[in-house]
Amino acid sequence: MYSFELRQPTSIGGAVRALADGGQILGGGQTLIPTLKMRLADPGVLVSLGRVDSLLGICTDDSGRLCIGGATTHAAVAEGGGAYPALARLAGRIGDPAVRNRGTIGGSLANNDPAACYPAAVLASDAVVATNARDIAADDFFTGLFETALDDGEIITEVKFPVPASAAYAKFLQRASRFALVGVFVARFASGVRVAVTGASESGVYRWSEAETALSAEFSPSAVDSLSVAPGGMIDDLHGSPEYRAQLVRVMTSRAVAAC
Amino acid sequence: MPKDDGIGAATTRREDPRFLTGKGRYTDDINVPGQAHAFFLRSQVAHGRIASLDTTAAAASDGVIRIFTGDDFAGVGGLPCGWQVTDRHGQPMQEPPHPVLAQGKVRHVGDPIAAVVAETLDQARDAAERIDVDIEELPTVTNMQSALEDGAVRVHDDLESNLCYDWGFIEDNREAVNAAIAGAHHVTTLELVNNRLVPNAMEPRAAIGDYNVATDEHTLYTTSQNPHVIRLLMGAFVLGIPEHKLRVVAPDVGGGFGSKIYHYAEEAFCTFAAKAINRAVKWTADRSEAFITDAHGRDHVTRIDLALDENGKFLAIRTDTLANMGAYLSTFAPSIPTYLHGTLMAGNYATPLIYVNVKAVFTNTVPVDAYRGAGRPEATFQLERVIDKAARELSISPIELRRRNFIGKDQFPYATPVAVEYDTGDYHATMDKLEEIADIAGFSGRRAESAANGKLRGLGISHYIEACGIAPSALVGALGARAGLYESATVRVNATGSVSVLTGSHSHGQGHETTFPQVVADLLGIDAEQVAIVHGDTATTPMGMGTYGSRSIAVGGTAIVKALEKVIAKAKKIAAHLMEASEADVTFADGAFTIAGTDRSVAWGDVCLAAYVPHNYPIEELEPGLEETAFYDPANFTFPAGAYACEVEVDPATGEVEICAFAAADDFGNIINPMIVDGQVHGGLAQGIGQALMEHAVYDEHGQLLSGNFMDYTMPRADDLPSFVIDHSCQTPCTHNPLGVKGCGEAGAIGSPPAVVNAVIDALQSGGHDVDHIDMPLTSCRVWTAINADTGS
Question: pTM of whole model > 0.90?
Answer without folding.
Answer: yes
